[in-house]
């Protein structure tokens, strides 16, 4: 028989002293997810130094990190709960039953990508395909303050990256390549905002 043991009391909720704001994300760093127990950086202190990132940029194995071009209009939708049988006779009082949280699909726009740079992004589509099973790819996000969004020293897992051919509105407009990727439910657990001793938006360019 299944048992459900509740804690003797509710868990305390900490006071928020410093609010976390992602602000405007401007670039992403893509890398294959490292095996459990083998982080790409030894510590967060090491992660703050540019010298710790250079070997990843120069690697020729699974630790290779690639940086996207700058982008605009990056939006991460908020997660939403899913509820079955709301407002029906199949739930008590029609309240429904909580069944989980939806994954989200962030979107953004690359502007004016040359064809060769666009083609360099396409392998990420295959690398992040959901049919491969668990997320094989992870990302580090860099915002306009030069801060790094990650899961501590580890990247945030993602699936189903896509970017397509550009659209053009004609006179006085930019070519736009839409892009998107999938974050699974619970992706925010363990996420941190780190201010390094360099600006990853510009200092990690080859």
Could you walk me through the main structural features you see in this protein, from its secondary elements to its overall organization?
There is one protein chain. Helices cover 14% and strands 28% of the residues. It is built from five helices and eleven strands. The protein is α+β, with helices and mostly antiparallel strands. The chain is globular, with a radius of gyration of 20 Å. The strands form two sheets. Strands 1, 2, 3, 6, 7, 8, 9, 10 and 11 form a nine-stranded antiparallel sheet that branches.
Strand content: 25-35%
Instruction: Indicate the structural class.
Output: alpha+beta
Distance from first to last alpha carbon: 59 Å
Q: What shape does the CA trace take? A: globular
The gyration radius over C-alpha positions equals: 20 Å
**Count the strands?**
11
Assembly state: single chain
Q: Quick recap of the structure?
A:
The chain has 206 residues and is α+β, with helices and mostly antiparallel strands.
Defining key terms:
206 residues; alpha+beta; 9-stranded antiparallel β-sheet; 28% strand; single chain; 14% helix
């Amino acid at each position: 028989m299944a048992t459900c043991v509740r804690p003797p009391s509710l868990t305390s909720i900490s006071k928020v002293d410093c609010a976390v704001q992602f602000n405007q994300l401007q670039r992403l760093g893509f890398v294959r997810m490292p095996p459990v127990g083998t982080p790409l950086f030894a510590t967060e202190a090491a992660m703050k130094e540019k010298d710790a990132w250079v070997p990843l940029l120069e690697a020729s194995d699974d630790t290779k990190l690639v940086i996207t071009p700058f982008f605009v209009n990056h939006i991460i939708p908020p997660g939403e709960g899913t509820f079955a049988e709301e407002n029906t006779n199949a739930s008590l009082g029609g309240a429904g039953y909580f069944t989980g949280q939806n994954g989200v699909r962030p979107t953004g726009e690359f502007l004016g990508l040359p064809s060769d740079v666009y083609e360099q992004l396409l392998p990420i589509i295959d690398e992040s395909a959901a049919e491969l099973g668990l997320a094989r790819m992870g990302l580090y996000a860099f915002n306009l303050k030069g801060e790094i969004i990650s899961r501590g020293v580890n990247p945030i897992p993602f699936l189903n990256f896509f970017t397509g051919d550009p659209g053009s509105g004609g006179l006085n407009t930019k070519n736009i390549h839409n892009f998107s990727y999938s974050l699974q439910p619970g992706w925010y657990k363990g996420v941190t905002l780190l201010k390094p001793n360099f600006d990853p938006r510009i200092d990690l360019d080859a």
